[in-house]
Amino acid sequence: MATATAAEAELQQRLAQLRREIEQHNYRYYILDEPQVPDAEYDRLMQALRELEAAHPEWVTSDSPTQRVGTAPADEFAEVRHRVPMLSLDNAFSADDVQGFDRRVRERLGREGPVRYSAEPKLDGLAVSVIFEHGLFVRAATRGDGTSGEDVTANVRTIRSMPLRLRGAAPALLEARGEVFMPVAGFERLNAEAAARGEKVFVNPRNAAAGSLRQLDPEVTAGRPLDIFFYGLGAQEGVDLPARHSEVLALLAQWGLRVCPQIRLVEGVEGCLEYYREIGARRASLAYQIDGVVYKVDELAAQTSLGFVARAPRWAVAHKFAAEEALTRLRDVEFQVGRTGALTPVARLEPVFVGGVTVSNATLHNMDEVQRKDVRIGDTVVVRRAGDVIPEVARVILERRPPEARSIVLPAVCPVCASVVQREGDEAVARCTGGYRCSAQRKERLRHFAARRALDIEGLGEKLVDQLVDAGLAQSPADVFSLSRQSLANLDRMGEKSADKVLRAIERAKHTTFARFLFALGIRDVGEATAANLAAHFGSLDTLMQADLQRVQQAPDVGPVIAARVVEFFADSANRDVVKRLQAAGVTWPAPTEVLAEQAPLSGLTFVLTGTLESLSREAAEDALRALGAKASGSVSSKTSYLVAGRDAGSKLRKASELGVPILDESALRQILETKRPPT
Ligand code: 5U1
After folding, report:
1. What are 662-672's pLDDT values in tens digits?
2. Is residue 443 annotated as part of the catalytic site, yes or no?
3. What stretches of 349-415 show up as alpha helix (H) in DSSP?
4. Ligand 1: residues within 6 Å at CB?
5. CATH entry, 95-320, from 3.40.50.300, 3.30.470.30, 3.50.50.60, 3.40.50.10420
């Protein structure tokens, strides 16, 4: 008898270990609704197992996690056997994978030309089967292991968008397949309410949906904002089947079943990839979370001839987005000092690929967050990078905490200038008290001063600011205006040509607006909108500098906290000196127009602009609205008069819809600016 080699024994051990780990994750994910690791980590383990089993098919066991789709149903719910198995989808992670899928489809169908696909968002929810008999809703079941799932009829019945009877003529039997999910706005509301009651919050909308659907008490489910989209058929009797999947979707919609409005027909692989890019760009502004898109061959006869392999159809594929969460180890924590002295704990991580880039630093926000999440150095952490948002440490995998993990301690003194670090009252933020003595604060103030939305000094970026401060050439924004060609040209990677370019940009920046100037000063809590309000209200710098707390508070949208910041700022002699030197250097702005705010056509109206505008920049649009007497604010509230939504508008658009704030598109905005009248 042949004895297993040491290498084989090791491989078998690894196989068993992978299966145990995956089973444990399945249990946590499907049964407890408490996933321990991000989906990408789970996918990685499954992929490793598949590869091992592919190399050694003789070792595949019938109970391997690769041999079924999910996990067995929980004991509490009745088991439902699916009349037609509920399939899963193969994944594609790259354009190459999609090209491979399309090539295989065309080869099997013997097609030369492009295939037509139904391109659909892949919702991050729970797949369900819903059965209607003679039009009446009789049963809903989760997918379970694909062969049988859990009876969640009573819970699905509570979903408001779920019809209890089909509209129009109904077949004897219809099994509609779809996804139960929790819209992002509902998820945020649910979590905010739970947090206010001091209860545990859900990790993400998918978990919230799963936790809500798998409640034994339907009353609880009824209180959860669940929704459902349908995307296909299971068993049926008496359905006059159309020729195309897109026509099936139209039929479902006719019966009153919700179909995702973002589904579209596309031509060939190019059409698929264009759809992927488009939906990817809009992902953050969709009302629901998705983790990719699905392409399905539209022609049903072609689907039939393509058939299935294992438990996945050959006629469909899920094209996944780069995972937004990944696991890595927290190597260390350093404290970064910001413009106003705020100390931000920054996680130094073992590099990890997440959200499409390699991340080695992530924010921990502040010490309250560090404590709330119980993060320690040495921990295995979940790093999250969604869209262009700064990567953050989302949570800790407590089960993987090593014994030597160390607590994160707020330093008593600034790591840059050694000034005392203070926390004001019950503020979450700790600050370095060094002010201009701290080189980190000086650098950040200078960066802010030169930023595009402040004095807009092109070329005075991150690296140049570091050099100017380190070389002692610019300690405050006022020093920028006395830089010489020679001193600039001597800096690293500069030379005379670049120096001249920067000097020309500095010269141009002398002509600005009062609002930009105020914003550029970097007064704490004075953002662009507040600066614009202060500028419009006071008209002149002298008046503002002499105003007391009460007078500053009279400016629109300025409360006691901001007013105190403004008064404090101008009471500081170092700040007054900077202002004086800036003026002496020739920084000027046009005098206020004589038009009184009340006479301006948009006075009394507050606009919030969000998303990307096609025909003008957001700043230009805000300036133009302000010139007509409107206020332009950065956040949506019940006081917002109008929200202007450009392309890829996100959370502000959702909030405005929730609050019933009227929403305008870009053409409506253009009309306001052209006619100089409020919208009708
Ligand atoms: N939009 C969509 N999601 N989704 C998931 N369609 C779709 N189809 C699926 C699954 C599992 O499966 C069928 C293709 C079998």
Report:
1. 999 998 999 89
2. no
3. 367-373
4. 87-89, 120, 122, 127, 231-232, 294, 296, 313, 316
5. 3.30.470.30
